Amino acid sequence: MRFIITLLLITNFLSAGDKIALLIGNNDYSFQPLDNPLNDVDGIYKTLSEIGFKSSNITVLKNKSQNEMKKALFEFEQKASKAEIALIYFSGHGMQVNNTNYMFPANTTATKPIHLEGLVNLNFFIQSASSAKYGIVLVDACRNNPLVKYFQNGKHKGSTAKKGLGQVTPIAGQVVIGFATSAGDTADDGSGNMSPYARALSVRLKEKDDIRNILGKVGNDVSGKYEQNPIYRANLASSVYLSQNKIKILKPKIEIVKKINSTSQLIVASQMKGRSIIGGKVWQDEKTIKRFNWEEAIKYCNNLTLHDDSNWRLPTPKELKELYENKEKLKFFDDYFYWTSTSSNKKSNSAWVVAFDAGFSGTHRKNYKLNTRCIKK
C-alpha cells in the first residue's frame, strides 16, 4: 500500500525531573590551607536553590576524608541513575601526576607515589555524574599546589607531575566538565569571600541558557579579570538548561499522511531514508545515527535487516577506519566514538570503538551509550 512519510523537526521540552547536586569543599590542608572552598560551596548551594534544585537533592560536604568523599560519590552515583541532571562541584586542592588528576580530601598530603592512594581520582567524580541522563562536573581545584615539586624532576622514578590539572574530555555519556583554568595552569583562590570561578558560576548559573554557553560566559568573566582561563569539555547531544527546569532537545516527528498496515514498517522506512555509499558499501548517513550501548547497537542493526533486502550489521574496526579516511564526505556528532562489531573477548565487558576525531581504535565498556552506524552487506 502506498504511503507518504513527512519528517518534521520540532522543539520538544521535557520535564527535567529531579536535578541533584553534590558540593564538596575542602580547605583544611596542613601543607597550604585555603581561604574560600567552604564559601564557594555555600555560594553554589545558594544559586542552585534559587534555580530549582530542591534542598533535599543537594548534598554538601565540607572538609571530609577520602572515605567520606568516596562514600558520598558512590551514593550520589546510585541516586544519579534515576535523575535527569546530576551536578558535582569540587573546591579545594588538586594535582595531576602521571596524567591523572587527583582531588585532595581534607587533612591529606602527598609527597610520595604511595600517598596518591589516599586521594580521590577525578574519574570517580565523572563516573558518578555520568550515571544521570545529563552530568555536569565543575572542578575548582587548580589552585597552586606546593606538593607538585615532590613529583617533578625525577624525584620518584616513574612519576611525573605538572602544574595545575590536566583537562579531561568526556568520551561517553551526556557529560560536560568545567575547569577553573586551562591545562597546566593554576587558578586563584580569590582575595574576596569566593574564588573567581565560583563567584562567576554563582551568577551565570542563574541564566536561562545552555550549560555550555554559561560555562563559556564564566570563562570570559574570569579571564577578563584574572590570569586564568576557565574552559570546559562537553559530550552533549542536547542543550541542558539548569535554570528553567527544562531540557531542550530536537526530536523527529513522523506524520502519517495515509495509514498503512505495518507501524514497524513505517518506522524503519523513516530510519532507512538516509544512506551513504562509500567505498562500494552502504552506510547509514549522519541523520540516522543512533546512540546505544553495545548490545543494543547489535540488536538495532539486526532489526533493520528484518525490513530490508539484505543484512545490516555493526561495522568492523577496519571498515570504520576506512570510513574515517573518507570523513570529508561525512558529518559527525560532537561525540566521535562509534561502536564496532568486535568485542574484546566473549566474556569481556568492553568492545572495540573507533574515534573519528583521530582515526584510532580502542575499547569502551559495553554499557556506555555511543554512536551506532550500521553498514549494509
UniProtKB/TrEMBL annotation:
GO terms for biological process: proteolysis. InterPro entries: Caspase-like_dom_sf, Caspase-related_regulators, Lcl_C, Pept_C14_caspase. Residues 19-240 form the Peptidase C14 caspase domain. GO terms for molecular function: cysteine-type endopeptidase activity. Residues 282-375 form the Lcl C-terminal domain. This is MORN repeat protein. It comes from uncultured Sulfurovum sp.
